[in-house]
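Memo to structure team: turn this sequence into structure tokens by end of day. - J.P.
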Amino acid sequence: MTLRQILIALAAAILLALVSWAWFGSTGEGKDGRGDRGQQPVLVTLSKVESRAFVDVIEAVGSARANESVELTAKVSDTVARLNFTDGQSVDAGYLVAEMTQREQTADLAAAEASLREQEQALARAEKLRARGFVSNASLDGLKAARDSASARVAATRSRMADRALRTPFAGKLGLRRVSAGALVRPGDVITTLDDISRIKIDFPVAETKLGGVSRGQTVKATAAAYPGETFTGTVESIDTRIDTASRAVTVRAVFPNKDGLLLPGMLMTVGIETNPRTALSVAEQTLVAVETRQYVFVVSGDGKAERREVRIGARVPGHVEILAGVKEGESIVRDGTLRMRPGATVKVADEPEKQAGARKDGGDRRP
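Reply from structure team:
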């Protein structure tokens, strides 16, 4: 071993000894039989181990979707005769959004209706003659078939005309116009969009291991970057019947009322589901002392001595931590001053700031 290696090993040993002494305290005793550092009490503030309500929160991110959404497209190739809406207009189901040019179809309908009337009149005369025995049953059946054929032509023409009138399938809000009156459109060309945003759906993934904490009807809370500080409340509507084998997650759908129309389709939402509500022991977050992967607190006994005790923690809420094991309710633990603490140290409890302010107010500068 070289001299350099010996010096490095010696420095590491000294550093390890200093760290151990800092955490576990010096075992040397002074002339009076007490630890050298034990002569000076450590000034601290205390807090109690208390019971507090906790819940587990399943968090995920999902995109908002309209309750119903559709693109209104042309069904035939022709020019747009008239557009009957404005951008963002709210409409009812069956509202006439656009009409295509249909002069040819109007003429065809008139011809089909005239043919139908002619066939009906011929059938009526034949039925009168049949009652007198001048028309055979075969001839009467032929006239009935001709009447039915003419009626079918009328229905087919009216259907083709209906394809040239674009109507909304449900109530909602129309989007932006994609075409203008007089434009030539083809089947599949989008004229506008229709969204029902009275309710908003959010699909989000939940890990397979947490699926047991999710059920239909459960309350879901969501936030959006567009509205800082505002929380939206909805419910779990359905859970997918399959788990994704790649991500080991299942898709959960939540529904949120959207009466004010604040939430829009495509908006990125952060959702949270509260599960497993319970009451458990808790301590203030600043009382914890982390040593590698373990957590400790300093418990102060009645004689003012501090005991370092390992604890097992659970859920966290702002300012507090759930304690699963290690302390009992009502025990006093060090809140401020943990950096100066060591096992077995004597503590001196500092007055709370409120008490100090009150003492200054009551016993201020009094002159005889």
